Amino acid sequence: MRKSSIGVAVLLWIAVALISTPASATVMVYGDNNNLFVSGTNALPAVVYGYNATNAAIPSSFNSNFLVKGDGTGSSAPITFSTAPYTNVNNKLYFVFVLDSQENPTKELLSIDNITITVNGNAIWSTTEAIILNPGAPLTITPQSKGADMAFLVPVAAFNGLGLTGSSTFIFTATHSQSSGGNEEWQFTDKGVTSSVTFFTPGQPIQDLSVTVPEPSTVGMMFLALGGGIAYSRRRR
C-alpha cells in the first residue's frame, strides 16, 4: 500500500473513532457537589450543582412547577425565554432549571437519563450523559420535601445564531428512571449556582457572545477533505 493511502486510511479511522466514541455513561451528583459538567450537544456542557445545607445558593423561593413527572419522559408546555432565569458561571451564561426530587426515604437515588431543549419542533440542545442523583451520602438537602435538590444549568450559547428573542418559546423534556417516590418537580427559582438570577427582556436576543459555538459541519468538512485525499491518492496510482 502506498504511503499516501496509509495516511488517508489513518485519518479516516481517527475521524470515525471521534464520532463513534460514546460519552461517559453517567455523572454522579451528591449533595456536596459544585460545578459538575454534563456533556451536551455541540460540545456545550451543562453545569450541575447538588444542594445541601451548607450551600450558599439554596433557593429561597420557587415559581410554579413547569414539569412534574415520575419515571418515563415528560415535556413542559411551551416556555417563554423571558420567563426562564439565567445566571453567570465563570463568565458564561446559563439558564437555571431546578429539580425538587420526591424520593422514598430508603431510596433517594434518581436517574435523569436525558434532558432536551426543543424550539419550533427542533431539538436544539440535549445531554449526552445520564445523571445519577443521590447515589449515596452526602445526600442533597431535601430529597423528600419541598426545596431544591439539584440545579441544572443549560448554556445560553446553545441558542446563539438562531434568531431567538425573549418572546420566543422552548419546550423542556426530561426522561427519568429509578424513581421510588412521587413525581419529580422541575421548577424555576430565584437563585442560580452562586449568585442571583436575571432574565432576558421580551425583545432581547437569546445569545451568549462570550462563547464560540462549534460549527456542526466540522465533521462533515473533515470527511470531504478525506474524500478528496482518497481521490487524489487513486489518481496517482
What brief labels describe this structure?
globular; alpha+beta; 237 residues; 7-stranded mixed beta sheet; single chain; 2 helices
Characterize the structure shown:
The protein has helices at residues 3-20, 218-235; strands spanning 26-29, 36-38, 46-50, 67-69, 72-75, 79-80, 86-89, 92-100, 110-119, 122-126, 130-133, 150-155, 169-177, 184-187. It is α+β, with helices and mostly antiparallel strands. It has one domain (24-214). The strands form two sheets. Strands 1, 5, 6, 9, 10, 11 and 13 form a seven-stranded mixed beta sheet that branches. Strands 2, 3, 4, 7, 8, 12 and 14 form a seven-stranded antiparallel beta sheet that branches. It starts with a helix and ends with a helix.
What is this structure's SSE topology?
Layout (H helix, E strand, L loop, with lengths): L2 H18 L5 E4 L6 E3 L7 E5 L16 E3 L2 E4 L3 E2 L5 E4 L2 E9 L9 E10 L2 E5 L3 E4 L16 E6 L13 E9 L6 E4 L30 H18 L2
Parallel strand pairs: 1-11
Antiparallel strand pairs: 2-3, 3-12, 4-14, 5-13, 6-13, 7-8, 8-12, 8-14, 9-10, 9-11, 9-13
Helix pairs in contact: 1-2
Query: How widely separated are the two ends?
Result: 10 Å
Helix content: 10-25%
Q: Give me the Rg, rounded.
A: 21 Å
What's the number of helices? 2
What average pLDDT do the residues reach?
78
Strand content: 25-35%
User: How many β-strand stretches?
Assistant: 14
Secondary-structure class: alpha+beta
Largest sheet: 7 strands, mixed
